[in-house]
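To: structure desk
From: M.T.
Subject: fold request, one chain
Message: Could you run this one when you get a chance? Sequence is below, nothing fancy, just the single chain.
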Amino acid sequence: FFSVQYFVMWRVFAGVGGCGVLCASPMCWSYWQFCAARQDPMQGHRPFGASEEAMMRDMSGTPVTADRNPGVRIMSNFCSADEEKLLIQEIQHMMMTQGVNQIDERLAPIYQGQMAHIPNAPQVNMRRVTGRFERQPMGTAQWKYGDQFAPEGLPPMVRKIAERIQESKDFKLGPLRDVTMNYRHSSFFRLDPHVDPLGDGENVFILGLNSNAVLTLSPRGTYRRQDEVQIAKKSWTDADIDSLLPQRGLLMLCGPARNTWMHGMRQGVPVPPMKISWRDWLAGRDPSVGQPPLCDWWGRPDSIVHRNSVRYSVIFAFGHSEPQRFPSSWLGGNQY
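Reply: Done. Structure tokens follow.
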């Protein structure tokens, strides 16, 4: 229960009055209420429904019911196939003009070596465009970030999707604070577990394009496997939750799922051998040739989810629906 947000508040206000107790000022109380709200998986959004239960599995393959859902909502076909094509065109243009490689050159050989057991292992890759300042020499996109976010800088179709999310009656959202675009190829979708910067906003949406994928939620404070081969086979912890994100689907993280659980994507496992029909055998054809080398599993290792070679995603982060009564910089908005 004593999360990092409460610790930060203690560090800010401890010592007031010379006795090291929490300040009882309105700003302190406002921040306390905000921290409590961050642990609420509802926050005015629609209740969890059949869609979430159908697409979420624990590590035994059991569906995750509403009472066990930490704050995930999943919507299939949030955009049409035609809209997907336009979105991909916009993302491709942004990647060509502003995209930056996200794999540290010192870590790339390590990541590549962790796939030495995989036949025809894919090239390590991750390319991104974001308005958030992350590190040099990476620039920032024209739509900026946080309190300075400028939606008019977004490509037209991306902005249309952002407005569709914000206007949906399923959600109770504040202003848009961040948009990030990601591009992956060769079925390498690995994303190590992390929590997005708090300054991004309270409500995070992931729009998956051109491929199905499995997003894994992993709790903090639990023993975590470190060997990538074992992680690929068993996940990071036995308490992880897999969420199926279908192509053109939208996945939302809020409450504990956004703030206290980490999220990531496993490296993937080799695609199981395909059965060859007698016709292919006689013709000397191998249907597995040209297929992506890696696939996902969902809830159980024998529940395979195939990946396309290329995947795009757009991350939309919205602030809390209630106005904040303290500087957004307290949440790290100026540090990422």
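Reply (cont.): The first strand starts at residue 56 and ends at 58. Let me know if you need anything else for the meeting.
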